[in-house]
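Backbones bend. We report:
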Amino acid sequence: MSQIDPGTSSWLRTRNDREALHLFLEHGPLTRTRLGELSGMSKPTATQMIARLKRADLVRPVGEVSGNRGPSAVSWGVRTDRITGVAVSMLEDTIQAVLVDAAAAEHPIIELPVDKAERSPEGDIRRAIDAACAAADAEHHTVEAVTVGVQAAVSHEHDVISLTDSLPGWPSTGSRRRIEQSLGVAVTLENDVNLATMAERAIGVAQDAGSFALLWMGGGLGVGVDLGGSVHRGAHGSAGEIGYLTVSAAPGAPGAGTTALLGSDAVLQLLGGADARYPQDIAALADDPDALDAIAERIVLTLEPVLAVLDPAMVVLGGPTALACGARLAALVTARTADGERPAPTVNLSTTGSTAVLVGARRLLVQQIRERLEERIPTQ
């Protein structure tokens, strides 16, 4: 956007138009009168703002609102079909994807099986975009941004992914660049647990927490760290990779990796092992007191270094294993942490559901899409 001198008529018009766009996005369709009320502008000024946004193809008539007297008023809404994005969650055996628009409207979530012999960053994301657009009946060319949750540490600065075995065909360096160059979209790669942590802060149980740690229990383990509303990623994007930590159950006892304690294989062993599948068969955990006790005890061991170093106000238990265990698991962990010498944090079960990673990715995309729409407001 070109520079505009503050206080000039052009600056004031642009400022008013941005405010109008924000109000349309926040409140949904508005009439000229309602826009004036919300913005504090006169009806003539509100009319001018709508006219300029319409010329920029950012708003359009979406209906009429009947008044008590006089003719019906035209209701205007944002052109959510101008720019869209796709949120993607890369799982071990499937790809989840959903279309995202500026209004944060709900669109179908699709799941694609992956062919491990035919994998590449651009190939996987192309399939995700195609499927998400088809499910939402959206035009492919409107997709300008993609946010991808990966089971890996992500260095944004160097375009490096590491500490992963779930992305065959994805190079450790340059995956984001390959997707952008091949598909012509802006790409954000982000650790999946960090995205789930953002979702918990935005709409979950940790909305009012001063700080919290999200212990994610799935195929592997991860910890998302939120300090005052900001996710701590570390210098190389590997903060929270607790699955690589070794802990010991007793002094002098041999250590075990936390993934060996709480990863999917360990959980399946608690359910009998041989015939059980993860995550399809773990719902039985909620009705197995012995398994719940074992998992709670292992969580306390895993959390010990997290609590010692970070001292978060809250711990959130998330991921497939935690959701399968239910609220009883949080109560068991609470009882065990309360027995320690240090003040115990509040322990809660995640409330963001099974698509928490997509929820976090969607929220990032909504903001990016809105910024792109704002950039299309004329400055002259």
